Amino acid sequence: MVKLFLAGASYRDICAVVGLRSPQSVGNIVARELSGSAQRRDLLTDEAFAVWQERSERLFRAHWGRALDGNYRSAELCRKLLGQQAQVYGLAREVSLIGGTPAGVVEVEPDMDELARLRAKRAGA
Q1: Fewer CB in a 10 Å sphere around the end CB: N or C, the chain?
Q2: Which residues lie closer than 8 Å to 10 by C-beta, 6 or more apart?
Q3: Is the pLDDT reported for residue 59 higher than 80?
Q4: If DSSP codes are grouped into helix, strand and coil, which group holds residue 86?
Q5: Is residue 78 pLDDT above 60, yes or no?
Q6: How far apart are CA 75 and CA 88, in angstroms?
Q7: CA 77, CA 64: separation in Å to the nearest integer?
C-alpha cells in the first residue's frame, strides 16, 4: 500500500487495488507504515545533509584561493556557494534588486551601520 501511496495513488484507488472498503482504513495503514519508517528517514536525511555539506565545503575550499587571486569564475562559484549556505542555515533574507537577481541566487542585505563606519574610516573621517 505504501508503494502505491508514494507513487501518487489516492486512498480510493488503493482501496480498489487491495480490496479494502474504506479509504480511512488505507489512510490509517499508510500513516502507521510511514511513522514506523520515520526514524530511518531522519537518519537518511541527516546523512544526505552531511554529504552535501562536506561536498560544498570541499568545493568552496578548492576555489577560494583562486577567487582571491582574481579568478572570476571561482569568485562567482564561491559567492553562489556562500549564498546557498546562508539560505540553508537561515542567515539570508531575499532582497529584490532593481535589475533583478539571477535565478537561484539570494542576496544578503548588508549591515548599513557597519558599511557606513567602513566608508567613514576610508574617507578619513
Answers
A1: C
A2: 23
A3: yes
A4: helix
A5: yes
A6: 20
A7: 9
Half-sphere exposure for 119 (CA within 13 Å, toward CB): 6
CA 40/CA 125 separation, integer angstroms: 59
Which cell goes with 107? 542576496
pTM over 0.85? The answer is no
CA separation for the pair 51, 62 (Å, rounded): 17
Residue of 87, 89, 120, 122 lying closest to 105 (CA atoms): 87
Q: What is the 8-class DSSP label of residue 124? A: T
DSSP string for 37-52: THHHHHHHHHHHHHHH
Coil, strand, or helix at residue 3? helix
Cβ-based neighbours of 53, under 8 Å, separated by 6 or more: none
Using a pLDDT cut of 70, give the percent of the chain over it.
Answer: 76
